[in-house]
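Provenance

Sequences were taken from public entries as deposited. Structures were produced by running a predictor on each sequence independently, with no templates supplied. The record for DeoR family transcriptional regulator from Nonomuraea glycinis is shown for reference.
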Amino acid sequence: MGVARGDERGTTERVLSLLGLLQQRQIWTGPELADRLGVTPRTVRRDVERLRALGYPVHASQGVGGGYQLGPGQDLPPLLLDDAETIATVVSLLAGAGGAVAGAGEAALRALTKLDRVLPTRLRHEVRAISDSVESFGGGRAPVDPEVIMTLARACRDEVEAGFDYPSGGDLRRRRVEPYRLVASDRHWYLLAYDLDRDDWRSFRVDRMAGVSARTWRFRPREAPDAAAYVQEGVASRVYRHQARFLVHAPADTVRAQIPAAAAVVRQRDGGGCEVLSGAGDLDFLLMHVVLLGHDFEVLDPPELRTRCRALAERLLAAGGHPAAVTGGGRQ
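Predicted structure for DeoR family transcriptional regulator:
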């Protein structure tokens, strides 16, 4: 004789309730769980076996202080969150993704998009209200509408085209893109996407977007550059009039700790040194920043920067009372 659908549903709901209880407290006795679930201790033992068959490591111990305990396993099983826990988790991810923890931005966005699949409508309004009530100070990241972040994250996840208005030459112009990754720096969110009108990869500041929407047109993903590296190089170098490369005779980790990620790209080189790529509107400005790092360095590019080095050195010597003629012409 088969088991009725109602009995199957009741068993599933009870097992999920048991899992939720085990995740709330370190240890439960059999009678406590039976009382909470309204069943017999024998049914609790059967439901524990069902959880074990699903991969949850439920341990049982005898004697005083013994009971059932959910232990760590080789894989992370699904977690059951109540409404309050879900809201707190989503708000925390929205507020801190890609922030203080190195490498956490992409993982946080993956977690957000997974929660987004199952987040009830009634909780979306609470998440938005709480997110809007959180502010920061002291050079934090530029404020971005959480709905915009989620719209772009869904578009990246679902591989559908996105559109938005973006400043260009003093005007807002509509851009059609194939979104690839969201990247968070210490100050801004960026979208790396393939610009369909310009037929090339571009990075866009999310706080400058308006009218963000996802379309139903799906696309086949292209071979893409490394998202974080592409955005960092664009922010630190490509947007400026002058770009320069230096060989700095110091470990890359040491130099990275001295320069904000948005100001330069630092790459490890063989022999213990590192390459620093940066940009600015003025070559002397770049030189002074590298000088102030306090390490020996060499100019790699551009060639005219070597001339600026000599001119700046003679100017500094003259300022210090050294009898050297100032040469090299004006600033570039």
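Residues 5-24 form the longest helix (20 residues).
The chain has three domains: 5-70, 83-227, 240-319.
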